[in-house]
Design goal:
This protein is mostly helical. The chain is 73% helix and 0% strand. The chain has 2 domains: 8-72, Arc Repressor Mutant, subunit A, CATH 1.10.10; 77-199, Tetracycline Repressor, domain 2 (Orthogonal Bundle), CATH 1.10.357.
Length: 206
């Protein structure tokens, strides 16, 4: 978390022993509650009950529902699956798109992402945590694009972060706006469109 934020302790520290177990239990409980009821009904006392810890512990450590969501995003970023590398830009982007699709279509993860996005619209600390989450995930996959540039698949100067973001953007549109299916066909179309645009130079930095 940002320096001076009231949430920086849970996001920055990696304590061991009981403290780590309490944090893990609370974050699991928070994810379950968000997936079931959304951000508007996230209650710290309910999270404490689900996690089997004292309310005082939760209130002292996270202070607000938005603070809990911010820390949950930190944990989600560190636990996300690493990228795959096939030696082909299209195959790499397709792997990324399918991973995003599986996550968003998951009966728990999909509602959870909707809830944390809702939290980010209401609280700046949650919004900053969401931006960091996506920056982390995009940075994880950016080397696939950099390698495609090095192989000559893409024009020099292609912005790898923009390419990776272009893959997931239409999938989040399906989750949040259109309600269209989140399946492998949608993932493959998103990857193919991003790859075609990248080859055409759409993501070359000025």
């Amino acid at each position: 978390m940002e320096q001076g934020s009231r949430y920086d302790q849970p996001g920055q520290t990696r304590p061991g022993g009981r403290t780590a177990r309490v944090r893990a239990a609370v974050l699991r409980a928070a994810g379950d509650a968000l997936a079931e009821h959304g951000f508007d009904r996230l209650d710290l006392a309910d999270v404490a009950r689900r996690a089997g810890v004292g309310r005082t512990t939760v209130y002292r450590r996270w202070a607000t529902p938005a603070g809990l969501v911010a820390d949950l995003l930190v944990e989600m970023a560190t636990e996300s699956l690493p990228r795959t590398e096939s030696g082909s830009l299209l195959d790499d982007l397709r792997a990324n798109a399918r991973l995003v699709c599986r996550t968003l279509a998951d009966p728990r993860q999909g509602p959870l992402f909707k809830a944390v996005i809702a939290a980010a619209t209401a609280d700046e600390d949650a919004a900053a945590a969401l931006r960091r989450f996506y920056a982390t995930r995009i940075a994880e996959w950016a080397p696939c694009v950099e390698q495609a540039v090095a192989r000559g698949e893409l024009p020099s100067g292609t912005d790898p972060h923009e390419v990776v973001a272009a893959v997931s953007a239409p999938l989040y549109y399906r989750l949040l706006a259109s309600g269209d299916p989140l399946d492998e066909a949608a993932a493959d179309r998103a990857a193919a469109a991003a790859a075609a645009a990248a080859r055409a130079g759409a993501f070359v930095s000025p």
